[in-house]
Design goal:
By secondary structure, the protein is mainly β. The strands form 5 sheets. Strands 12, 15, 17, 18, 19, 21, 23 and 24 form an 8-stranded antiparallel β-sheet that branches. It binds zinc ion.
Length: 273
C-alpha cells in the first residue's frame, strides 16, 4: 500500500490523443527496475531517460484507430512487486479529407505477375517490421527529410481511378526529381530496394518498433545494414512506383501503426536521449 500512495505519474504528450498522432509516454517511477506496457494491442517499449527515475516510450494511435476510450496498460517492476500504472485514454477522431486521384491502371488492377511480386514484397516488409532493434537508435528531434514544400495529406481517404480506396499513410513533399533526401534521425537502414508500389524505397529502423520510410526515390544512396545519422543522405527524390508525379512520400511507422509525420516533426524529443 505504501507503494500505491506514492504512485508515480504517467504523462502523455500531446495530452489530447488524436487518431494518427505520435505520443510520447513519460513515466515517473523512481523505484522501478523496469517498465512495460501495452496500448491498443501494441507493446510499449520503455527506455530510461537522462533524468533518474524517468522512463519513456515513443508510441502512437494508428490513423485508423477507432475513436473512444482505450486502456493504456503500464506496469512498473519494483523490488517490492509490480506497480499498476494503467489508465484510460480517450482517442479522438481526426478529421481527414477525401480526394480522388488517377494513376496508371497497373497500380489499381495489377496483373498476375505483379500480384506475385506484391505478395513477395508484403512478406519481406512484414519480416522487416517484426525485427526492430531492441533499443532506441534515434536521438533528439526528428527533422524534415527534404527541403521542399509539404502537403497536408496524411490520413486523406483516397480513391484511385474511381475504384481503389486507401488511406494515405504518409506525408508528401513536393520535391522535384533529384532533390536530396536525408535521414530524419539516426538509425539503421533495414530496406533499400525497388518495390512495386513504393518504387525505390528506403526504410530506416529507429529502434523499439519505430521506422521512417522514404518512397518513390530516383536513386538510393544507402545499403541495407548501414547505420545513418540524422541528415545523412539516403537518396534522391523521384517518381518511381505508384505516383501521379515526382514527390517524396515519407511515412512514420510504429509497429503496425502509421503516425502523422508532420506531428512527429513537431515533437520535442531533445533532452530525452
Ligand atoms: Zn504519398
Amino acid at each position: 500500500m505504501a507503494l500505491r500512495a506514492q504512485a508515480p505519474g504517467v504523462t502523455l504528450t500531446p495530452a489530447v490523443v488524436v487518431a494518427g498522432a505520435p505520443e510520447l509516454v513519460r513515466v515517473e517511477a523512481p523505484e522501478a527496475q523496469s517498465v512495460s506496457g501495452e496500448w491498443m494491442g501494441r507493446k510499449l517499449f520503455f527506455f530510461q531517460g537522462k533524468q533518474a527515475g524517468t522512463w519513456y516510450a515513443l508510441a502512437g494511435a494508428d490513423v485508423e484507430s477507432p475513436a473512444g476510450p482505450s486502456t493504456l496498460h503500464i506496469t512498473a517492476q519494483t523490488s517490492g512487486g509490480e506497480l499498476d500504472l494503467g489508465r484510460s485514454v480517450e482517442v479522438h477522431e481526426a478529421r481527414y479529407r477525401t480526394e480522388t486521384l488517377s494513376v496508371a491502371p497497373e497500380f489499381v488492377q495489377p496483373g498476375a505477375e505483379a500480384l506475385q511480386q506484391i505478395e513477395e514484397e508484403k512478406a519481406l516488409k512484414e519480416k522487416i517490421f517484426r525485427a526492430s532493434a531492441p533499443d532506441p537508435l534515434w536521438s533528439g528531434n526528428f527533422r524534415r527529410p527534404v527541403t521542399a514544400r509539404s502537403t497536408d495529406s496524411f490520413g486523406v481517404r483516397r480513391t484511385f481511378n474511381g475504384k481503389l480506396e486507401s488511406v494515405h499513410k504518409g506525408m508528401d513533399f513536393r520535391a522535384a526529381t533529384g532533390t536530396p533526401v536525408r535521414a530524419g534521425n539516426s538509425g539503421v537502414v533495414v530496406l533499400a530496394a525497388r518495390l512495386y508500389y513504393e518504387g525505390n524505397c528506403v526504410v530506416i529502423d529507429h529502434g523499439m518498433g519505430l521506422y521512417t520510410i522514404s518512397m518513390h526515390l530516383s536513386r538510393i544512396d544507402v545499403r541495407e545494414g548501414q547505420h545513418v545519422n540524422g541528415d545523412d543522405l539516403v537518396g534522391l527524390s523521384g517518381a518511381t512506383g505508384r505516383v501521379t508525379g515526382p514527390h517524396l512520400h515519407w511515412a512514420v511507422r510504429w509497429q503496425d501503426a502509421y503516425l502523422d509525420p508532420a506531428k512527429m516533426l513537431t515533437m520535442n524529443l531533445s533532452g530525452i536521449r
